[in-house]
Amino acid sequence: MKTPMLDQYERIKASCPDALLMYRLGDFYELFYDDATLASELLGLTLTGRGKGDSRIPMCGVPFHAAEGYIGKLVDAGLRVAICEQVEDPRSVKGIVRREIVRIVTPGTAHEYLREEDGPLRIGTLELRSSRTLGAVAAMLDPLTGDCLRMEATTQELLGWFKTSGVRELIVDSQTSEQARRAIGEMATALNALVSHLPADRVTHAQDDLAQVVTTRLVEYVSYTLCTTPLHMKPATSVNDTPYLYVSAGTAHHLELLEPRRFAKRSTSLFDFLQTTHTAMGKRALRQMILYPLADGKAIEARLVVLDHVMENAVARAETAELLRGFRDLEKMCARLSSGAAGPRDILFIAQSMRRAVQIRNVWEQVATAVPLHALLADLPRDDAQDVQIEAMLVDDPPVAERALGVIREGVDPEIDRLRRIAQDSRAYMAELEARERQRTGIRSLKIAYNRVFGYYIEVTASNRALVPDDYERKQTLAGAERYVTPELRLRETEILSAEDQLRNLEEGRVRQMIEEMRRRVPEIQKTASLIGMLDAFTDLAEIALRYRFTRPVLDDSTDLEIKAGRHPVVERWLSAAYVPNDTFLSDERQLAIITGPNMGGKSTYMRQVALIVILAQIGSYVPADYARIGIVDKLFTRIGASDDVASGQSTFMVEMAETAELLTMATEKSLILLDEIGRGTATYDGLSIAEAVIEFLHDQVKARTLFATHYHELTELPQRLPRTFNLSVAASTERDALIFLHHVNEGPANRSYGIDVAKLAGVPKRVTARARMLLQEREAQARQMNREQVSFFDTPTAQEDQEARAILETLAELPLDEWTPRDALTYLFDLRERLRATRENGSEGVSAWGASRN
Ligand SMILES: Nc1ncnc2c1ncn2[C@@H]1O[C@H](COP(=O)(O)OP(=O)(O)OP(=O)(O)O)[C@@H](O)[C@H]1O
């Protein structure tokens, strides 16, 4: 026999089959059946059971007040959780209490349950244009702030956007086309995201406008998970209208834009370096700026003008910082208002912050002369009358929950004050009655107390039962005590309870009204929140620019990149020694730089520095350089530094090649590409060949500005045949056998490589480095010998060939094979063959090289 409760459980569960159902039962959320088994495993909870024998079903539970953490864990594990509450007061119903799902928490919409520091949380979806070449229309939505971004691009590009933006869940519905479904499936795998279905009854009728379709789908999904119509969704903006700098996910990772490298000892991310904002909105705005730098000259200039202004006005800046310090997270509160979770405390906090916004507006209105700043201020609130009123009505420290007493300030409502006095008087009265009864009965331990079931009662310990007077009426017997009522107590109780009831009704009514008013103001509050976020971010960027002596960049539509004395802001900050500034000059004629030099010489720092300067400039920030002129970059790709993606199950080489593939297909003439030692992860000749072919392709086809760091010295020859390439090298010197890094970037290739010196520096035993140096010398000597004996043997057949063959044989005879590893030998052999082939193809030119040193 199924109990009515289980019946209800199963009905509710059926309405939400792809979520774990947390079913509220008194002070617990209970899970049953498979949900219970799964949750108990993931959360380490004891699995119990309900019922007996065969009909016993698995069950586990979490206390309701601690549920948040558990829900967070489940969602983090990629599950959906449906929260089912009791929606009536159990005391006022006979039989089973009505229950409803009040929230579905999913990986992409769990903003109240996950830590914001772990990055943004977004949901996304897409539809494909009927013709493949037209690409796809996509939208992504931040369920906390209600920001919705639309974009039209290739699916590959969209994947990149989704990845950097933290899309954790992709939404499909019954109208999603088959193709789109496939694309979404593939993306979900790449993003490690969940694919979720919007229930059919939520799908609005088919529309022609795909942009509309994708945004509506996401808004509907948020509404579905919140179990209410959200008030805080903003109209979608389009990436295609406001061009942004595309930063591939790999790039954001390599450059440590938002998060430091795994295992980094300090916060080495750009975000951490820049972030001294005062508000949660400011932090979000800054993160957003870094994630979406601009690619439109006018928009960047507008930001720079605001920044100039903020930098110039030190007093206003300081006052703003002061006001921002106490600012509450308005965006989070709007989300709470929207989902019906807001209570009196939220209302007070919003009112206080909105008043501060008015003050901030006043601060700047007096000094603002710049048009873009005016535009920013125009939408800040001007009038705080409403909020002053709210502050006057609510007590200083109101409770979080909507249903609580003592929320309205004394003097606001005479009726509330009167009822409160009755309640208070009765408390005094009860104390007095207690004293009186103790006196009358002689029972010193007698006490008057209250509970929800019996109301007020007099409690007497069992040992004093004999002293109880006749007019006491027994209510309840406990182990060591008896509880009584008297007619007087009953009378008083009715008075008190009715006063408290009325009081609660009145206070709740007031609060509900305030919440309703605030809900109507959500768009205004959101607008304020985002402007305050921007102002906070600008104040922050201003402080940084002043503190670290940044300069204002010049942006234009050229494809130049000119930096004088550029620095890497984060490395400079943490370096104990002085940072060596470096110049950069790229243009149409100097499109691709091949950078050589010793390990640890500063190649990757140099490349990162260039990338960060470009990003900062396109954010609208000042930059760490004496001068910077930047032809606006449309897409930024980097492949720098050791990959730590090995943990994700992909080989370093595979990841590297995937990223290379991405940039080769996506980059344009306006892009900037930074590559560090690509091809290193494979056999020398594979690697070298890949590297060379990539350079050729970038030079001939893509024509993007490129910095290419490499250890293949062979590549320094490329400028001879690829006119837009040139050599750069990081300087090092060896003094008395010690290697000194100068960190200075020079024109021209590195004259030698310093592998052995670096090995020594790194503590490789002297015997090994000495031996290596000997081997190197031998090789170089052989090379010289070969060069001397070199004859162009293919010209005049037999005799020459003969001679060359003898030279080869002689070299072979001299090879220190005993000391070589098989790999050394094999590499040498490949080397030999490769060069002989090259010789045959290119005539005699290459011969000189065949025995040359391989350093
Ligand atoms: N311009 C500079 N001024 C001062 N110190 C620097 C500079 N550039 C780099 N360094 C220091 O040198 C270290 C090594 O730099 P980096 O990692 O860029 O070398 P690399 O040439 O890329 O080495 P590898 O080829 O091994 O990757 C940095 O951690 C930093 O401490």
From TrEMBL:
Q: Which PROSITE patterns match?
A: DNA_MISMATCH_REPAIR_2
Give the GO cellular component terms, alphabetically.
cytosol
Protein name in UniProt? DNA mismatch repair protein MutS
The free-text function statement in the UniProt record for this protein reads:
This protein is involved in the repair of mismatches in DNA. It is possible that it carries out the mismatch recognition step. This protein has a weak ATPase activity.
GO terms for biological process? mismatch repair
DNA mismatch repair proteins mutS family domain segment(s): 671-687
Sorted alphabetically, which SMART domains does this protein's record hold? Answer: MUTSac, MUTSd
Keyword terms, alphabetized = ATP-binding, DNA damage, DNA repair, DNA-binding, Nucleotide-binding
Q: Which GO terms describe its molecular function?
A: ATP binding; ATP-dependent DNA damage sensor activity; damaged DNA binding; mismatched DNA binding
Species whose genome carries this gene: Ferroacidibacillus organovorans
Give the UniProt family note: Belongs to the DNA mismatch repair MutS family.
Listed transmembrane segments? none
